[in-house]
Structure formats: structure tokens, C-alpha cells
Amino acid sequence: MCQLLGMNCNVPTDICFSFAGFRARGGLTDHHRDGWGIAFFEGRGARVFLEPCASADSPVAELVRRYPIRSLNVIAHIRKATQGQIRLENTHPFQRELWGRYWIFAHNGNLCGYQPSLSGRFLPVGSTDSEHAFCHILDALAQRFPDAAPSPRELHAALRTISIEIGRHGEFNFLLSDGDYLFAHSSSRLVYVIRQSPFPVAHLSDEDLAVDFNEVTTPDDRVAVIATTPLTDNETWQSIPPGTLQAFHLGAPVALGETSTVAAEIGTGLPRSA
């Protein structure tokens, strides 16, 4: 299983601490060695680092771990290849433009027999099911809202419908962001923690490293961290139930409408629902 990491905040925040533990899962504390990537939204821009190699051995990943890039939304991925060769073009997260802003996407899972019909506006560069799914999502959104970006509620409803459609083909955990909201779809496993005042002294599960967030934050700061499995061993992480599309905004989960999807329930033994 690939590893996902996301961060959504109410003030620009660096992800150095969480990325230190996450990076170790790419070949040190876990067996995922087929590539890694991370994307930071900065204003209207997006800074993306990608490598088709193990993050635990990467000097670039070490640079990211030490470089305090501050962002409101971050998405990172560690790859265990299931479809597509180990190449740069198949490395997550993927980036595209829609409605005059960048979108970032990363996927964990395997979609079988998945051959979406695309209009041609968004086409995959690589050969992964993940990038095909990203192009499918943006294609469907562009066709549904051709003139301008929809409201957050309309966007959430559309993403839920698309997630149900794509999720029928297999495991479809993903993180998606336009730099404002971060959407997390749990097909089998995703967890999150909200860090806010009073802040904890957090300790990583994958590395002997702790930080007292009271020393590096203000009382008004709030950060949501989303991951495949908990990154720390002394915080209470909340599960995003399988079959759920959850939105995050300004460092907290937000209710934008119905969250249940069918995608996560395929192969999990859970009842089917729409």
C-alpha cells in the first residue's frame, strides 16, 4: 500500500516534523521504494518535488525535511508501484490547472479494468491508473462546471459522485486540493489529527523525534494532518471511515454535504451504500 500525507492549515505552516516520519516509510520503516513526491501550495503557485526513488535515501527528501516551506495545503505520497513503471512521470502527486488554479492529487490503491473515456482536455503523461483517475476527475468537473469554479458544496457533491464511479474499480484512497480546500477520500484507510491550542508534545512513530508545538505556534494556529496511518505514537488520531469523502478547510474538517461513497466498500466486506 502506498502512503499518503496531507496538511491543511489556517495559517501557513511547515510540514518538516510530519515529513520526517513520513519520509522514513519510503524504504526505512516500510518497503515502499518506488518513488516519492510532495507538493506545497504557495499563493497561486505550487512547488512540487518528485523523485522515482526511495525517499529514505534521497538527498532531495532530506532537503525538504530541513527546509521550512510554509503552506496552507500540502500533499505528499510514497509510492509502491502497482501499475506503471518506476519513472518520474508516474510519480505522485500529479498537478494540473483547472479554472485558473492548480490542482494537486495523490492516490493510494489499485483500480482494475479502469479505462475512463477522456475528452482530451486532461490527458495522462504517464501510465498509472492514478493519473488516469486524476484526469477523469478534472475532466468530469470541467464538463459539469464549464464556466467557473462551483461553490464548495457543489464541488464536494460532484467529487462524491465521481468517487463512487471510479471507486467501483477498486481501492481509491486519495487526497486532492486546489490550494483552498483539501479533500480526502477513504476507501480503506485514512486517519487525521487536529493540532490546536493547547498543543501537544508530539513524538514520531517512525523516528525518535519529538516537538513541543507550543514553542513554534501561536494560540490561534490550527493544523489538520491526514495520513494513511498515524505518524505519531502519543496523539489521538481519528479514522476517516471507509467509504467517506471528507473535506478540510482552515485546519479542520468541514461539513459540505453527504459524505458516503460506495468506492471504499468494494472488497472490504462492508455493506454497499450510495
TrEMBL record:
Keyword Lyase recorded: no
Pfam families, per database record: GATase_4
UniProt-recorded Gene Ontology molecular function terms: transferase activity
Domain Glutamine amidotransferase type-2: 2-251
CDD domains: YafJ
Keyword Transferase set for record: yes
Keywords: Glutamine amidotransferase, Transferase
Domain of life: Bacteria
Protein name: Class II glutamine amidotransferase
Species of the source: Parazoarcus communis
